[in-house]
Design brief:
The complex is a heterodimer of chains A (361) and B (243).
Chain A: H1 3-17, E1 21-22, E2 28-30, H2 31-38, H3 42-45, E3 48-51, E4 55-59, H4 64-74, E5 79-88, E6 100-109, H5 114-128, E7 135-140, H6 141-149, H7 155-163, H8 168-178, H9 182-197, H10 200-206, H11 216-231, H12 237-247, E8 250-252, H13 253-262, H14 269-284, E9 293-295, E10 309-314, E11 324-328, H15 330-336, E12 344-349, H16 351-360
Parallel strand pairs in A: 1-5
Antiparallel strand pairs in A: 2-4, 3-4, 5-6, 6-12, 7-10, 8-9, 10-11, 11-12
Helix pairs in contact in A: 1-16, 5-14, 7-8, 8-9, 9-11, 13-14
Chain B: E1 3-8, H1 11-23, E2 27-30, E3 39-42, E4 47-52, H2 57-63, E5 68-72, H3 73-79, H4 83-86, E6 87-92, E7 98-105, H5 114-128, E8 132-136, H6 139-148, E9 154-158, E10 174-179, H7 183-187, E11 190-192, E12 199-201, E13 203-208, H8 216-227, H9 233-242
Parallel strand pairs in B: 1-4, 1-5, 8-9, 8-10
Antiparallel strand pairs in B: 2-3, 5-13, 6-13, 7-10, 7-11, 7-12
Classes of the chains: A alpha+beta (361), B alpha/beta (243).
Keywords (chain B): Amino-acid biosynthesis, Glycosyltransferase, Histidine biosynthesis, Transferase
EC number (chain B): 2.4.2.17
Enzyme class (chain B): transferase
């Protein structure tokens, strides 16, 4: 048994001790589910192979999807699962990060008291990782979502921003356009000016032969929505600034909460209440919320399916990936549950990263 | 040991490559009968000509089986992961120009930019239940480009030829392909998005970082003088350290 496998076994038994039922998952996963969930980018990160009967398959890039699927199929509620095994990630460089490494994970599916479930997972990870010199960090995608929904603008614009909350660069470009500035706003103004001239029908006809699956009706619908959007007033500057301020917020959790409360942003109140409840539950679980680091943008670039609480345990070595990451992914269970959904929170630990840290000591 | 120079084995690309080297004072020619893939370099010892399909040259460079190679900059970027760590661009050669672009049906009067394409991809998925299909053979370049621009809800479908026809054949909604004049696109009722292209490609002379330069570097030095090339010291130094 390697050192990493020994650590994995120890972590897994700690998770079982916390009441989790061990589960297994196939290494070969249907590619379609993962592609629909993560988009085409997953192809750059996961190994794709081909099965003569089942079509495109992927070597599992993580356990979350198969574990959620298994639970949605035949899980009792509430449920706690743990697992351990290799996952596979493509790397662009020959001497890059590991292509195959262990993940030990813990997932909680529970309808009641999400704050307590969040705290349970975080406190368990803190306890399992207590012997290592790691910095915990927390965040909350739910607050970002509430801030977007609280902007004074059209539902269409909010939906466009929500769709890109995990792509910070694109999000910023959209926000700039909706504020009436920047290159995208100019290109949009030009397009709208062209489209205003004639009726949608005559424009499509003049453009030449219709080819492809996207119908004339779909084109006309988008023209109508573009013209409507052009009448929407720009998102007020102070709101854009408030949102950007929120995105760059980093402070101890209680202080961060007080700061966000201090903005008197009504739309944030329910999300901040949830944060406060979580901090209370963390205090109850023995985590000091007055010193716990909170970063509003944490988890925005790498953890696309998390939609509430997010956390990580990171070392001071920036050449190593985080030792642990996790968070809440209520929306994912709805996507995979085909009509059914259950609130869920969990996380994974990478034993090899712990071994690398041990070796450096 | 000689320095191996890989060049395209047929067509205009080969002729233009011969012309370029001739203009730079080095005569390359094919030898043997017309169909035989053999060539020679005149007036310079120690350079061995290797005739290859342009599409295989990136792979041969990466493997270090040839020291120098002429191929399209698009092919190198598409075929080689982290290409700059494997090869060095010695000289853009000024021919074989083509842009890798994204094109959509001309009838999409509501789409001019990637910003529009992204919005349409979202609506298309909601309407049709699957991600908007973009046909291409340049998977890596196109995926990196679309990710950098934050386009979501699309899928790449593989098309190794007649890519412009995929939209009409209903196997894709948009395409990403190489074009030089845009005529084929227009004939197939497509238009190019206004954003800068995915890549502006041209025939380029590359050096392989991973080739064995221990002896070849002397030939390389005189070749560089003859061709008037500025060969970065790091190419040779880096490579010999690797051995």
């Amino acid at each position: 048994m390697t050192r990493a496998e020994a650590i994995a076994a120890e972590l897994l038994s700690g998770m079982q001790g916390a009441g989790a039922q061990p589960v297994a998952a196939d290494i070969l996963q249907p590619a379609e589910t993962l592609l629909d969930l993560y988009g085409e980018d997953i192809r750059a990160r996961a190994y794709v192979t081909h099965d003569p009967a089942l079509g495109e398959m992927m070597l599992r890039p993580d356990f979350t999807v198969p574990v959620v699927q298994a639970h949605m199929r035949d899980g009792a509620e509430p449920a706690r699962y743990c697992y351990s095994g290799p996952v596979f990630r493509k790397q662009e460089r020959a001497a890059g990060r590991a292509r195959e490494y262990l993940q030990v994970g813990y997932e909680v599916f529970a309808r009641n008291d999400p704050a307590r479930a969040d705290a349970e997972v975080f406190a368990l990870f803190a306890r399992l990782l207590a012997g290592h010199d790691l910095r915990p960090v927390t965040g909350d995608i739910g607050i970002l979502k509430a801030a977007v929904l609280g902007l004074e603008t059209s539902a269409r614009r909010k939906a466009a921003l929500m769709r890109h909350i995990w792509r910070p660069k694109r999000f910023r470009a959209l926000l700039e356009r909706m504020g009436g500035h920047g290159p995208l706003a100019e290109a949009r103004a030009e397009l709208v000016a062209q489209l205003r001239g004639n009726s949608a029908q005559s424009q499509v006809q003049e453009a030449g032969q219709m080819v492809g699956l996207r119908s004339e009706e779909e084109i006309r619908e988008r023209i109508a929505s573009l013209l409507e959007d052009a009448e929407t007033s720009p998102i007020p500057r102070e709101q854009v600034q408030a949102l950007e301020g929120l995105l760059s917020l980093a402070a101890p959790a209680r202080q961060a909460l007080a700061k966000m409360r201090g903005q008197n942003w009504a739309a944030l109140a329910p999300a901040l209440d949830r944060l406060e409840a979580r901090l209370g539950a963390l205090d109850d679980a023995g985590i000091d919320s007055t010193t716990l680091p909170f970063e509003a943008s944490f988890g925005r670039t790498t953890m696309e399916y998390y939609d509430g609480f997010v956390f990580g345990f990171v070392s001071s070595r920036d050449d190593l990936p985080p030792v642990a990451t996790g968070g809440r992914y209520d929306a994912l269970t709805a996507v995979l549950g085909q009509g059914r959904a259950i609130p869920a929170v969990g996380g994974v630990i990478r034993p090899e990263t712990l071994v690398a840290l041990e070796a450096a000591r | 040991m000689s320095l191996k120079l890989g060049i395209p084995s047929k067509g205009r690309l080969m002729e233009k490559t011969f012309d370029w080297f001739a203009e730079h004072g080095l005569t390359l020619r094919r030898t043997g009968e017309a169909r035989e893939y053999a060539g020679a370099v005149e007036g310079m010892d120690g350079v061995e000509l290797v005739l290859l399909s342009a599409s295989e040259i990136p792979r041969e460079l990466a493997a270090g089986r040839i020291h120098l190679g002429v191929t399209g900059s698009d092919l190198v970027r598409e075929e080689l992961a982290g290409w700059a760590a494997q090869v060095v661009e010695l000289a853009p050669m000024g021919f074989g120009h083509a842009d890798l672009i994204v094109a959509v049906p001309k009838a999409w009067v509501d789409v001019e930019t990637l910003d529009d394409l992204d919005a349409v991809a979202s609506a298309f998925r909601a309407q049709h239940g699957f991600r908007l299909r973009i046909a291409t053979k340049y998977h890596r370049l196109v995926r990196d480009y679309l990710r950098a621009h934050g386009v979501a809800d699309y899928q790449l479908v593989d098309s190794q030829g007649a890519t412009e026809g995929t939209v009409k054949n209903l196997t894709a909604e948009a395409i990403a392909d190489i074009t030089s004049t845009g005529e084929t696109l227009r004939a197939n009722h497509l238009k190019i998005l206004r954003d800068p292209p995915v890549h502006r490609s041209q025939a380029t002379l590359f050096a392989a970082r991973g080739a064995d330069w221990n002896e070849a570097h002397l030939v390389m030095q005189s070749l560089a003088v003859r061709l008037g090339l500025d060969v970065p010291e790091a190419v040779l130094r880096g490579a010999s350290q690797k051995r």
